[in-house]
């Protein structure tokens, strides 16, 4: 089994087929979308392929170390930036092909008008111990 991160981009990914921003959806459309996401996660829990998922708010800041005894440097918030992650799901599956299959299904979550979004999801494998050993 290998873990994959499925990233849902609110901005920064190629445009979805149903490209109406979520902040313009009705409360019913938002409920239908979240219901689809929850049902999808529940089905993956039953197969043992679900690890975790979270939705994210647009607020955030960049933070970095600035030297011994100095406070961290922050910059932001960046709600207006080009890229914005809306949320993520971690899955644990047998193959990359299965990860792509599930990402495709998740991409069909309903959006405006109850129609599937067909959004682009980023599929990223977790780094394994064997991938980060240094060759001598």
TrEMBL record:
SUPFAM superfamilies noted in UniProt: Dimeric alpha+beta barrel
Record-linked Pfam families: YCII
Annotated ranges, domain YCII-related: 17-107
Annotated Gene3D superfamilies: Dimeric alpha+beta barrel
Record family assignment: Belongs to the YciI family.
The name this protein goes by in its record: YCII-related domain-containing protein
